[in-house]
């Protein structure tokens, strides 16, 4: 499982929007109690994104990931990122979503875990991602949120204290 930047960001969330607060609680629950059920990986791309934040909790976010194996961004991954951008799979930010998807795909991760539903965990983009990855002879990870891991939409009913 590839752990993308939004996971530590939601773990250490300070926003008070109710939906964000709930997602943060789910993130902490999964990280603290269920993460060890998976072989989790991250990348320097995640550490770089977190280090460049202006958030005072950025060090906490980075330390949360310490000890996870780090997937290396090779020149081949850079080429994959270029294809993703050229084929409009991901936005032009080569250090962002395209890089996370390329890392998870290249290293054959089963899951890319994210709260990014705009560019990554977006059902409307999945067919496009699969088509481009197939052309590149890459596997496509399941791109999911913690909601998928913790039980789907009925989680609201089961987590009444949230």
Walkthrough of the structure:
By secondary structure, the protein is mainly α. The chain has one domain (2-150): Rossmann fold (3-Layer(aba) Sandwich). The protein has helices spanning 6-11, 18-33, 44-51, 58-65, 75-86, 97-106, 123-135, 146-150, 155-158, and strands at residues 2-3, 42-43, 70-71, 111-113, 142-144. The protein has a 3-stranded parallel sheet with strand order 1-4-5. It is globular and about 40 Å long. The model is unreliable at 155-162 (pLDDT under 50).
Features:
162 residues, mainly alpha, Rossmann fold, three-stranded parallel sheet, two-stranded parallel ribbon, globular, disordered C terminus
Summary of the model, kept short:
By secondary structure, this protein is mainly α. 51% of the residues lie in helices and 7% in strands. The chain contains 9 helices and 5 strands.
Helical percentage: 40-55%
> How many helical stretches?
9
What coarse outline follows from CA principal-axis ratios?
globular
Q: Tell me the count of domains.
A: 1
- Radius of gyration, whole Å: 16 Å
Helices, strands, pairings?
Layout: E1 2-3, H1 6-11, H2 18-33, E2 42-43, H3 44-51, H4 58-65, E3 70-71, H5 75-86, H6 97-106, E4 111-113, H7 123-135, E5 142-144, H8 146-150, H9 155-158
Parallel strand pairs: 1-4, 2-3, 4-5
């Amino acid at each position: 499982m590839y752990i993308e930047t939004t996971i530590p960001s939601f773990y250490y969330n300070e926003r008070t929007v109710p939906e964000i607060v709930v997602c943060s609680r789910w993130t902490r629950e999964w990280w603290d109690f269920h993460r060890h059920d998976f072989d989790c990986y991250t990348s320097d791309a995640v550490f770089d994104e977190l280090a460049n934040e202006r958030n005072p909790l950025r060090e906490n976010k980075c330390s949360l990931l310490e000890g996870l194996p780090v997937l290396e961004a090779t020149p081949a991954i850079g080429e994959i990122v270029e294809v993703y951008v050229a084929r409009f799979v991901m936005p032009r930010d080569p250090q962002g979503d395209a890089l996370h998807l390329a890392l998870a795909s290249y290293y054959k991760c089963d899951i890319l875990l994210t709260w990014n539903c705009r560019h990554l965990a977006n059902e409307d983009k999945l067919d496009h991602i699969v088509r481009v990855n197939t052309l590149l002879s890459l596997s496509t990870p399941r791109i999911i949120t913690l909601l998928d891991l913790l039980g789907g939409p009925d989680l609201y009913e089961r987590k009444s204290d949230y």
